[in-house]
Structures are given as structure tokens and as C-alpha cells.
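Methods — Computational structure assignment.
A single polypeptide chain was analysed. Its primary sequence is given first, followed by the predicted tertiary structure written as C-alpha cells.
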Amino acid sequence: MMNPNAKLTLVGAGPGDPDLITLKGLNALKKADVILYDALVNPVLLDHAPQAKKIFVGKRKGFHRYSQDEINNMIVEQAFLYGHVIRLKGGDPFVFGRGSEEIDHAENFGLLTDIIPGISSSIAVPSSIGIPLTKRGVSESFWVITGCNSDRQLSLDVSLAAQSSATVVILMGMHKLGQITTVFKDLGQGDTPAAVIQNGTMESQNSGIGTIKDIEEIVAQKQLSNPAIIIIGDVVSEASNTDELSKKLELYLAS
């Protein structure tokens, strides 16, 4: 028998900083009966729902605690048993978050559903170090691309984006960084500015800025790894809050 309060709400947790969840999302957490949360969700957010049952269903490269089908079925099972299920997903649930699949599955079982958007890391993380994705006279548009497709191959959209003048933001692309830079080099874009930002908007945020030609070396030197995003385009030169600049300012103030 279905719990009379059975419902699924997708909630975007934002890019990492717990203060960047929406007020609507925070209020939903306080009313949850069950929370299924991802690896990129800041665990501090769970403190806002002491009443809720919490289940970690995160995925990372090489480690999937549950398959997507298992997560879909778990949503329905938990809703039938306990009531209001919050599916808490990093960033925005509809930006490479498979949120639409979870909504479709829940609705196939008659569940009420709701969606609370979140701030996507594709926009927030570049902003956190002063990189504007668009700027008059520099970039009129931007692409947001996943690093690989469902077959674990480099997305063909990377090559298409590299042929444009748009800013290119690549999520989940660190393990394809070499292939990505090769695509841009082959198109004569070796001098294009590039940045990699790890743990964006978090206290542990770290970044490296260079060009397509040297960004791999910079990433290795700074030991940058996932979770991280890649930004490519002339707007990277506008960065105003990088680790390098902060260190220069500290040295200046100390002199």
C-alpha cells in the first residue's frame, strides 16, 4: 500500500558551498522523510534534515554503489514505505544529473513529483574565480559539455565547440583532458587560455590557469584532480580571484 505522503522531489544542492543551495531547496530538506544523496553533495546540507532517513547513492569514476536502475527503483520503494523522498543532487538535477530519468520512472508508478532547480557548477565555479562565461567583445555564448558520452568516449561536441568562438565549459572531463587538449591543438587553438578548477566554491578550492598547450603540465604540477571542471576560452584571461593572484597579493602586502 502506498504511503499517502508518497512523493519525489528533485533538489539541486548547488556547486559545493552549502550556502549556495536555494532557500526552496533548504525548506524541502526540512520536510523530507527520506534523502537519497550524491557524492558531490556537501554533507553539511544533511544537517538540515535530522528527521530524515539518509541513503548515500553516489557515483564516482570506477565506483558505483548503486546502478541508475537501482536508484530509480529505490526512489519508488522508499516513497511507498516512508512518504516524501528528496533526491538531492549536486549542482542542478537536469544538468548531466539524470534527473529527468528519475522523474519519469517515479511518475510511471504514480508518484507525485516536483523539481527544485540548483545552481550549476558550470556557471558558479568559473564565477568563483572571476571568470565571466560571457563578456562583451570577448565571448557571446558558452557551451556546457560532458567530458564523455554514454559509451565513455570523448563527446563529439568538444570538437564542434572548439571550432566556435564560444567559451567551453567541460564537466566530468578530467580523465579526458589529454584528448580534449589534442582536439583544440589540432584546430590551431594551442594558445587559447584554459583553466581547471578543483572543488569549486569550497574552502578546498584549487585552480590552475594556462593555455591549451600547457594546462596538462599545470594540472600535474598542482596535483589537480576530480571533482573539477575545465574552462577554455579567452574569458579565462579575465580571472580575478585565482590562487596565483592571491599569493602575489599576500607577497605584496608582506613587503
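Note: The chain has a mean pLDDT of 92.
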